[in-house]
């Protein structure tokens, strides 16, 4: 097994059989995660490829991009996988979270304001604990805000500092 | 505004031009087609009490009656991006097709890059380069917020850029929105005219010409290059394009954009330029209540 590099975007292997880098997730495991956790079907990612640059930092771009690009960034950051619990990024939740049907917590306007300001808050939620997609209603439809960590009755905002807003 | 006096002979209604240069710019945003359509963005802004005026020439361009469009829900969701109206012209002129390989030579902070990504339906590969490491973070965060997955960011000198590693021999389309003296940004930067003039323009023109030549060299036969600046100076606009037309296998071609404009110059300060430069476009602040801009479209014919 070779090691992950910090300077090259390497395509995730299709499955375990094709794995050559220690600890690297597979495309299959990434698709399974989004399906099992959020109900996002694999077809949503049909035209996209996933890349690792930096240990456990997974990026998404259109699939036609060649392997091994040595660039500053490729597409958008998508998922963190080197902790026990995988964590989608704010921008992945916004970009792909409209397809989610599970583990989506719908916030009121006031709760959404607190969430994007980066505040933690008590929220009633009877589903799984862990990382959830937080959403609110915008012009009649559910729109994902980002990712929250739900533990012990509290929703912690995972919105990065630079993305937080006082709305 | 003294620095603008030398343009009096080429600008119709110079008094209106000067008056416009002294007014602040309207607040304008572009709707990000990757995440929202214009009707939904308008509805979301109006629901927050922000009045919106649509622009006829481009359904994605909206004037908004707030100085802080960044503090709205549509901005947080990446549905809109603050972008000066006339700076939306080059991506419209380049008009790449979904799936194309595109190079943006001087991309930070990424307004035009992300506009190109939306026009590509966020498919293909859009290589967004900038030589300024400090400005790359703005480019990256804008691409992230707007959800532009087709953007690969590089940090290099456009003059020595190559297609190595990108899986293509040449790009289908290239945007050369080059560094310039930025005279046309005077409505947003009061000090924009502090260090401008013929000498400053001649000084930066060789860099601009080198970038445009590299853009042409890395574009496939039949592919397009758009050259743009936010300055009025002919030394940085028509003179640069004229030099590249003479040196490279490339022709200047027409493009349509529904904004009032003046034709590119074919003579200036005792010099004459290729007749085709009349198909380049000059945008003056008084014509559309925007900043100043220059845009030319080239087609490679090897």
Automatic annotation (TrEMBL), chain A:
Cited Pfam families: DUF7122 (PF23437)
Protein name: DUF7122 domain-containing protein
Residue ranges annotated for the DUF7122 domain, each copy included: 3-75
The organism's place on the tree of life at top rank: Archaea
Protein's organism: Halarchaeum grantii
InterPro entries: DUF7122
From TrEMBL, chain B:
Organism: Halarchaeum grantii
Protein name stated in the entry: SAM-dependent methyltransferase
Lineage, uppermost ranks: Archaea, Methanobacteriati, Methanobacteriota, Stenosarchaea group, Halobacteria
InterPro entries according to UniProt: MeTrfase_RsmB-F_NOP2_cat (IPR049560), MeTrfase_RsmB-F_NOP2_dom (IPR001678), Nop2p (IPR011023), RCMT (IPR023267), SAM-dependent_MTases_sf (IPR029063)
Amino acids binding S-adenosyl-L-methionine: 106-112, 130, 157, 177
UniProt GO MF annotations: RNA binding; tRNA (cytidine-5-)-methyltransferase activity
PROSITE patterns named in the record: SAM_MT_RSMB_NOP
Family: Belongs to the class I-like SAM-binding methyltransferase superfamily. RsmB/NOP family.
Pfam families documented for this protein: Methyltr_RsmB-F
Entry keywords, A to Z: Methyltransferase, RNA-binding, S-adenosyl-L-methionine, Transferase
Active-site feature positions: 230
Domain SAM-dependent MTase RsmB/NOP-type: 17-301
Gene Ontology BP terms: tRNA methylation
């Amino acid at each position: 097994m070779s090691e992950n590099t910090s300077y090259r975007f390497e395509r995730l292997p299709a499955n375990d059989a094709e794995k050559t880098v220690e600890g690297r997730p597979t495309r299959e495991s990434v698709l399974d995660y989004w399906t099992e956790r959020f109900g996002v079907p694999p077809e949503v990612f049909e035209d996209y490829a996933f890349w690792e640059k930096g240990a456990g930092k997974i990026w998404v771009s259109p699939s036609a991009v060649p392997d091994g690009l040595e660039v500053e960034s490729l597409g958008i950051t998508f998922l963190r996988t080197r902790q026990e619990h995988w964590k989608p990024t704010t921008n992945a939740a916004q970009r792909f979270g409209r397809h989610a049907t599970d583990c989506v917590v719908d916030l009121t306007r006031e709760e959404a304001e607190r969430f994007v300001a980066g505040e933690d808050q008590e929220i009633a939620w009877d589903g799984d604990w862990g990382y959830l997609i937080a959403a609110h209603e915008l012009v009649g439809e559910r729109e994902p805000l980002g990712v929250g960590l739900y533990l012990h009755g509290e929703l912690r905002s995972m919105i990065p500092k630079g993305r937080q807003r006082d709305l | 505004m003294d620095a603008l006096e030398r343009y009096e002979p080429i600008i119709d209604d110079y008094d209106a031009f000067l008056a416009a240069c002294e007014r602040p710019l309207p607040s304008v945003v572009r709707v990000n087609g990757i995440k929202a359509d214009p009707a939904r963005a308008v509805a979301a802004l109006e629901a927050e009490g922000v009045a919106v005026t649509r622009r006829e020439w481009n359904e994605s361009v909206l004037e908004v009656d707030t100085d802080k469009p960044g503090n709205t829900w549509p901005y947080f969701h990446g549905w809109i991006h603050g972008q000066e109206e006339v700076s939306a012209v080059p991506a419209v002129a380049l008009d790449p097709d979904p799936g194309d390989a595109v190079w943006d030579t001087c991309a930070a902070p990424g307004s035009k890059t992300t506009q190109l990504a939306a026009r590509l339906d966020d498919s293909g590969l859009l290589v967004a380069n900038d030589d300024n490491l400090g400005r790359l973070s703005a480019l990256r965060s804008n691409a992230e917020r707007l959800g532009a997955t087709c953007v690969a960011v590089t940090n290099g000198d456009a003059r020595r850029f190559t297609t190595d590693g990108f899986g293509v021999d040449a790009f289908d389309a290239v945007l050369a929105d080059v560094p310039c003296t930025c005279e046309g940004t005077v409505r947003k930067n009061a000090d924009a005219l502090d260090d401008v003039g013929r000498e400053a323009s001649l000084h930066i023109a060789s860099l601009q010409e080198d970038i445009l030549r590299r853009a042409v060299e890395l574009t496939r036969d039949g592919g397009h290059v758009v050259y743009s600046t936010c300055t009025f100076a002919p030394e940085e606009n028509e003179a640069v394009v004229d030099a590249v037309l003479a040196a490279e296998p490339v022709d200047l071609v027409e493009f349509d954009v529904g904004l009032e404009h003046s034709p590119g110059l074919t003579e200036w300060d005792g010099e004459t330029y290729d007749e085709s430069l009349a198909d380049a476009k000059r945008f003056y602040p008084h014509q559309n209540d925007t900043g100043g801009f220059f845009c030319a479209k080239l087609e490679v014919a090897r």
